[in-house]
């Protein structure tokens, strides 16, 4: 018998089951002390860091592996 038809009840919100939380953790660690003077600077910093994470598959895979 397989578990394909089995329904599992999950909590309403479980951060440890959400791989997005791992990405945000990596992201926030690097830009938490960023000093900016306008929205354009923060936008540029956010896009740059997310692109860096995107091209590091081990980091992304680690976020999925810990869920």
What this model shows, in words?
With 67 residues, this protein is mainly alpha-helical. The protein has one domain. The chain contains 3 helices and no strands. The protein has helices spanning 19-31, 39-54, 57-65. Helix 1 crosses helix 2 (39-54). The protein starts with 18 loop residues before the first helix and ends with a helix. The mean pLDDT is 80.
Secondary-structure map:
Blueprint: H1 19-31, H2 39-54, H3 57-65
Helix pairs in contact: 1-2, 1-3
Q: What's this, in brief?
A:
This protein is mainly alpha-helical and 67 residues long. The protein has three helices and no strands. It has one domain.
């Amino acid at each position: 018998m397989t578990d394909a038809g089995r329904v599992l009840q999950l909590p309403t919100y479980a951060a440890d089951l959400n791989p997005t939380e791992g990405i945000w953790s990596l992201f926030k660690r690097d830009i938490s002390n960023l000093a900016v003077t306008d929205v354009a600077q923060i936008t540029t910093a956010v896009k740059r860091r997310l692109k860096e994470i995107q091209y590091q598959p081990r980091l992304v895979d680690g976020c999925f592996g810990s869920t």
